[in-house]
Amino acid sequence: MEFLANIWQWFAGLFTVTPGWMIFGGWMAAGLTLCIYSFLYKDNPFFKVAEHLYLGAGMGWVFQVTFFQTWKPRVWDALMDGQFVVLIPTVLGLSLMTQFFPRISWISRYGFTFIMGYGAGLVIPLEITTNFLRQIGGTIAPFAGGAGFWAMVNGAIIAFGFICVLFYFFFSVEQKGVVKKASNIGIYFLMLYFGAAFGNTVMGRFSLLYGRFDDLYKYSGSGYFYATHVVLGLLVAYFVLDKLVLSKKNGGQEPAH
Amino acid sequence: MKKIPLFLPFLFLTALSSAAKPPAVLPPLTGFTAADMPGDAGGAALLRWDSPGSAAAGAVIEVYVSDPAKPAWVKLADFKAEAKSESDFNRPFWAWSPAAGRNAVRLDTSAVFGRLDKPQELDFKLRMVRGAASAETEPVRTVIKGNWFNAARLNNFLLMLAITIGFFWTVSHARRKGLFIRRIAGLDAIDEAIGRATEMGRPIFYSTGIGQMSLVPTIASTSILGEVARKVAQYDTQLKVPHFDPIVMTVCKEVVKQSYLEMERPDSYRDDINFFVSNDQFSYAASVDGMIHREKPAACFFIGHFMAESLLLAEVGATTGAIQIAGTEQESQLPFFFTSCDYTLIGEELYAAGAYLSKEPMLLSTLKVQDFGKAFVMVSVVAGSILLAAGAWFGWQPLIKVVEQLFKAY
Amino acid sequence: MKSTLEKFLKIDRRLIFLALAIVLFFPIVRPLGLPNKNLGKDVVNIYNHIESLPAGSFILMSLDYDPATRPELHPQAIALVKHSFRLNHRIGIFTLNAGATGMIEEIAERIPKDIAPAKVYGKDYVIFPYQPKPQAVMTQLGIDMYAIYDKDRNGAPTREMEVMKGIHSVKDMSLGICVTGTALLDAWVAYVGDKYNFPMAGGVTAVSQPGYGPYLQTGQLKGLIGGMKGAADYESLINELDKGTSGIDSLSLAHILVIILIVTSNIIMLVLKYF
Amino acid sequence: MTLIKKQIPLLICFVVGFLTLSSYYVPHPVSEKYMEGINKWENIVFGFAFLLGLLSLFFSHYNKIRRRVPGWGYSIFVYIGFLMMVVPAFVSWGQQLDGASLTSLGWAYRFVFNALSGTMFSVLAFYIVSTAYRAFRIKSPQAAVLFIAALIMIIGKVPLGQMMWDGALGWTNVLVADIVEWLMSVPVVAGRRGIMMGLAVGAIVTALKIIFGIERQYMGKD
After folding, report:
1. Which residues on chain D are in Cβ contact (under 8 Å) with A161?
2. Residue C82 pLDDT > 70
3. Is B190 contained in some domain?
4. Which of A36, C126, D1, D167 has the greatest number of C-beta atoms within 10 Å?
5. What percent of chain B has pLDDT over 70?
6. What is the CATH number for B53?
């Protein structure tokens, strides 16, 4: 027993984060980041490795968080406390796993119906309130005139555009005459929405890229022994080498990109 | 109504004198009632009393509560005497009728007595204080309990009933007679695309996206794929359907085969029309990109559930000069499709196209209920804005309140 | 002439990638220091709302973003925490997104270091563990939050904590803020905001920002911080420039690049078509 | 057997759905107690649901390795990635901070998960730029409107764009930021709200179908 404890101590000791580990972390982060960006040049093994690591790491993270923050306190501690009623949802939850075994997969239905019924019952009145009643209320509110003339004009534009968009998505009537005109105006309101979404998406994606570049810049410092520079150099070297070998092998044909 | 002439001189006096010093004597608190707060889980009381008016300006009203079993007055709340008019109460007109010149307040007793599951008998009294002067009411006893219906949510409840009834009506109707759905303009573009592919002798690519079979856009996409496959079989063009999800692929194989059978071209059907590429988002996009780049198809269809890969797919199709028809329910991806494709089915349009082609009663009825919902919204918005504008124009405050309260959450 | 233009249009996209990389990286090495003016209306609204709360109000922060949206949302969350602490509000932080726990831990690490060293855990703020099934958690928050959050993330009982004094459900709190890159803010509005009449505000990515227009117009959301620009706005409002503001230079240059590219390519297209 | 396999699950779905729906209109303590109980249960049941994704990921990559499909070697990295998070988690017993310093779990998050997850989505920035140049075409009046709105957003959100606007169109006395604000609070609201209505009714109808057992695709095949 003591032997096992000693082994565990030694093992856990390996995982103590020392300053050296922090520098290695910089290399790790810069390396993984650049491996993924190397996909922009072309698909390559480094990208594939990073991509698969990402899949596994994402799942691993969710697993450990759920284990320590949900299963342990809500199920294990509760059972130790003598609250055996938590066994019912636990069994229902575990029943979902029978899905993978076709012969007994019907057991998973008990878990699923429990989740689906609950979600469906909860959502109906809330959709009615939040996305239905209150949106109608919000559309007509400016007409009460409390917020001045321009608010009323803007309110009228919203109400008009809103109705036109609804006409565009109205499928029970053939589109001709007034209906067609209204739905044609509606599509321009949709375009303004999509345009704004487009512009904002551009900004959003750039922000994410900026965030990663900012990190790369941090790891390119001397404190991290120029991790970014070295990894980038190695990747470039790989691609140059790859190109030389590849061009010899199949007559310089670059795969489609 | 009678009170106003009585009050007027009084008001005038207080207005004059309040600048200097409020009158030392407070008016008495009258008409005090206590009751259970309706439409809640218990643990709250509704107190109402006559508004003391401006004679009580600057005074504070304190509320005291006591348990008759262990009598001891505890202060529950205090507020300005002028505040808490009944018409400010956040309850709609069908569940609350405010009287002029009355004040009301909802008070949580659970802070003092905890939340009891059974009815609870309590005494309440009000005390008004200003400086040294004070006035107090007689205690009133009432029972606090949980209620079985929250009348304030009646608007929501009725709408829920209407939608449920409408839904079952359309389901039964769709099963018996079918329902009318207008022609979807985007579907006409399919003919054009396939005609062009036939002329050029180049293949057609059709992607159902990265959704699972249970998603509505994927279901709609398979219906549209059936239509495309029928046309393709008719003109004897080449069709290629790269897949992300193996289950969707199995379904699509059946759909395409069925279409070829319907057009009496089973001999031209090949099993490799549908093929599996990858169930990783970016790998899928990269492989399909490569294929489109190499084979230069005449037309590309991207119809179904798409996420970030929409950008990669639509770009390569556009640069190779294919006719592109796209459709997705993902709002964030629609701008990219719209700018780089020739025709785009937007959200519900995609569902409608699927329902139109499949004639599936379930899909049709959903679409129909959605149309009823939209019609209701259109009528409500038009009627509501006219009524509100009229109310504002003629100064009918009650009308404005009624209309506004109908479309609120409680 | 035409063929040159056509070639120019079909330029190897890796050259464009390179151009973007340079344009984004340059200001990181050499900051331009462009002023961030014209603060967004919705950002100012959320700032004013927090300012208007009496000191000691309980603010619930649901930080539901993972590393994928970190550059946009992390600065927002930090700015909100700083601002709330400065006004001596109480903060309850929790998450409904498992990937966010590391982000929250980073904030927890920074609070005693540089965000608000004077604030004490358990007295001024508390961090709850991750819980699955957002709808169930949200619904329970309106009834009795201790049914789910009876312990903090380290297993300490929360009921006795000073920070939780007088708090049983969202009805006892002053404001809820959800910072997320997913659709969870919609759920917060419906499941908590409208159901329990609880004031909600949010911080979202630029991608989803336009979608919240309707909720802002009806007042279902008291305010909204959108993307890195929103974070930069908030940082200027509380006068603590940080990661959000430093990104604005890069964004500026990259935006100009996109505009130039779109306009050029469409002009080339027109030339090819009509001349 | 169909009773156990089909009817009872559907009945559970109906009962749970109906009671949960009613709880919105019924404020009584009985309904609150029910909700409290079911919320706690859902919380736990759903805590196991992510295992579905985990196991299917493991199975599919296990099969790739077993069958030696092309590129099977990469599948090993899925397991390595998983262990890179889980092993440190058990060593540090779920704690990311030890006092003020990082534990190995915190390290794994900051330098591995953060880098991977953050980078995966930032790649899209590059594609947006290249697509903007090579594929975005003003083909119709609708697309033109979309583009104008997009360009205004792109210019109006950053200081450099605002300066350019002031330089070129400053004489109009209209700030581009004001146009952005108006765009976001008027036409965008109209467009988005129109889409929301259909989605809301669609969600309600789907929920009704689930409660009444008409929609049962989630139950799998018989």
Report:
1. 186-187, 190-191, 194
2. yes
3. yes
4. A36
5. 94
6. 2.60.40.10
Say if residue B141 is in the same domain as residue B96: yes
Whether D189 sits inside 8 A of C213 (CB atoms) is yes
Task: Specify the number of domains making up chain B.
Answer: 3
Residue B12 included in any domain: no
Q: Write out residues 67-126 of D within 8 Å (CB-CB) of B.
A: 120-121, 123-124
The torsion angle over the Cα atoms of residues B332, B336, B342 and B344, rounded to 10 degrees, is 0
Cβ distance of D24 and B167 shorter than 8 Å = no
**Which residue from B125, B136, B101, B129 is spatially nearest to B24, judged by alpha carbons?**
B129
B90–C10 C-beta distance less than 8 A: no
Report the residue from B41, B216, B338 with minimal CB separation from D29.
B41
- Whether D155 sits inside 8 A of C259 (CB atoms) is yes
Q: For strand B133-136 and strand B140-144, is the pairing parallel, antiparallel, or unpaired?
A: unpaired
Q: Are B323 and B342 in contact, with CB atoms under 8 Å apart?
A: yes
pLDDT digits (tens, 9 = 90+) for C110-130: 999 888 889 999 999 999 999
Contact partners, residue D88, CB within 8 Å, separation at least 6: A15, D103, D104, D105, D107, D108
Nearest alpha carbon to residue C170 among C129, C142, C200: C142
The C-alpha atoms of residue D189 and residue D187 are separated, in whole angstroms, by: 5
Q: Is D50 on the interface with B (CB under 8 A)?
A: no
Task: Compute CA distances D24 → B61, B147, D35, D171, whole Å.
Answer: 34, 12, 10, 56
Residue C238 φ/ψ, nearest 5 degrees: -90, 5
The pLDDT tens digits of the residues spanning D108-165 come to 898 999 988 888 888 888 888 888 888 788 888 988 999 999 999 999 988 888 888 8
- Structural domain boundaries enclosing B31: 26-148
CA–CA separation, D48 vs D52, rounded Å? 8
- Return the number of CB contacts < 8 Å for B and D: 115
So what's the architecture of C41-245 in CATH?
A: 3-Layer(aba) Sandwich (3.40)
In angstroms, the separation between the Cα of residue C40 and the nearest Cα of chain A is 13
Residues of chain A numbered 117-136 and touching chain D (CB < 8 Å)? 117-128, 131-132, 135
Beta strands in D21-177 (DSSP E): 97-98, 101-102
- Is the distance from CB of A58 to CB of D78 less than 8 angstroms? no
Task: Identify the residue with better confidence: A1 or D197.
Answer: D197
One domain for residues B198 and B267: yes
Q: Please check whether residue C97 is in contact with residue C185, taking contact to mean a CB–CB distance below 8 angstroms.
A: no
> Any chain C CB within 8 A of the CB of D43?
yes
> Chain A partners of D46 at a C-beta cutoff of 8 Å?
93, 115
> Which chains have 3+ CB pairs within 8 A of B?
A, C, D
Rounded CA-CA distance B306/B208 in Å is 8
B409 touches chain D (CB under 8 A): no
Q: Is B201 in the same domain as B168?
A: no
d(CA B65, CA B48): 14
Whether the CB-CB separation of B369 and B351 falls below 8 Å is answered with no
Residues 53-82 of D with CB under 8 A from A: 53-57, 59, 61, 71, 74-82
**Rounded CA gap, C173 and C154, in Å?**
23
Name the strand (E) or helix (H) holding A245. helix A227-249
Do B347 and B201 belong to one domain? yes
Closest among B169, B30, B46, B18 to B101, alpha carbons compared? B30
Residues of C in contact with D147 (CB under 8 A): 262
Q: Are C89 and C50 in contact (CB under 8 A)?
A: yes
Q: Give a yes or no: residue B200 inside a domain.
A: yes
How distant is the Cα of B280 from the closest Cα of chain C, in angstroms? Answer: 17
H or E element that contains B46: strand B44-50
Predicted confidence (pLDDT) at residue D70 exceeds the cutoff of 90 = no
Question: From the CA of B410, how many Å to the nearest CA of chain C?
Answer: 7
